[in-house]
Amino acid sequence: MLVGVTAVWGVTFVQVKDAVAIYPLFAFLAVRFLIASGTLAVPAARRVRTLGRDGVLAAAFAGVLLGSGYALQTAGLERTSVSSTGFITGLYVVLTPLLALALYHVRIAGAAWLGVGLATVGLALLSGIHGGSAVGDLLVLAGAAVYSLQIVLMERYAPRYDALAFTLVEMLAAFGGLLVVAVAAGQLGVPRGLTVWAALLVTGVFASALAFLAQTWAQRRASATQTALAFSLEPVWAALFGITLAGDRLGAAGWIGCLVIMAGIVIAEPATSDQLRRLVGRPAPA
Questions:
Q1: 110 Cβ partners below 8 Å, 6+ apart?
Q2: pLDDT tens digit string along 266-276?
Q3: Domain annotation covers residue 16
């Protein structure tokens, strides 16, 4: 299920880049999460009361983080290539366990630092490819950091609350925050054209509502290592669709950067996630 989610996320990089070129960024994101909320409303609305006050607040905070991460990532995507966005976003696989360990005040293993170093070198190589932008890459990196915090919190929240109800409140909170920004920026308007509506429907239904429901469900059953390694496939899908659908051309330095980032992810993530699992007492997967 998680691998399927990463494939959907990968193809939407191309769709979103095309859509926000003709429809305002924050309006697009607000409508996206409105569609996601509507998708989940019928099956989940009656279950929201099971969350209680703490659950609603937790889901709302996760939704605000999610909306912020998407705003940063999409703003970066406007300024850089699809492939660059995918691989830089993939750095949250490294950042997530590091952030979790930092919050728990645990010493970080040497393998994790090696992976971070490799990923940083890869990012530097990738940021210099044709069609990219240093500002765009930094915005995407900031979005990846926000995603990392959201995933860390989901490690705590997912086992505690109903997945459908939690995801609905999360989507509503993301919509509310982005709507406020869109109104303040004067970006509201009726979406028009097949390009925009196709991107809104795919991202709203599949890449938001169903994808984050799947994440909440999966993080009740899969270890941090399994989840994050599955998510590490997202930049691979993004590169594939960026090349085949958006005409990205990475060049030698860009491909080396992608490979180095993936090496950093594979080296750092298992070591830090295993350490975190031992810390919180989560049993190893069978």
A1: none
A2: 776 665 556 55
A3: yes
